[in-house]
Amino acid sequence: SNGIDFSANSNAAGMTSEVLDDYEEGSWSPGLETSNGNGSYTLYQTQGEYIKIGSMVHFRCFCGLSAITTYGTGWLRVTGLPYAGNAGGWGQYACSVWSNSLTSITAGCSGLVNESGNKIDLYINSTTGSNRLIPNNLTNNAAFYICGTYHVLGY
Q1: pLDDT averaged over the chain?
Q2: I need a labelling partner for 2 at 20 to 30 A (CA). Which of 12, 18, 44, 100 fits?
Q3: What's the chain look like in SS3?
């Protein structure tokens, strides 16, 4: 097998591999959509970067909204992650979200990398829990900074 072999190091219980077999750095283009696919948004700036080390992807992105043509229905999500998240019971991964210019938000936002997909579902937080971020929470100058780590599908 190709990669960097770390077998000279001591093993932890449950260890399944000592070979680092993948490393990649790159960029990606985040977008914004509704779960029903019927929203239409103009983004003035988008930027995404990632580092993939083995089966883990570390990412960050920015999405800045300049216009809302159609709010749409369902919930909001960021699209375009460079790899699909892993499936199964551990398939969703929490990410940090900083948001600006949203309506009806009292305790910030959070995100979950979509199970078996390359999207981030957005949530609003409150003192009683989290609910999905819906299109009516957006304003024309809403913005999101998001960062996180997730496990790659099929690895």
Answers
A1: 88
A2: 12
A3: CCCEECCCCCCCCCCCCCEECCEEEEEECCEEEECCCCCEEEEEEEEEEEEEECCEEEEEEEEEEEEEEECCCCCEEEECCCCCECCCCCCCEEEEEEEECCCCCCCCEEEEECCCCCEEEEEEEECCEEEECCHHHCCCCCEEEEEEEEEECCC
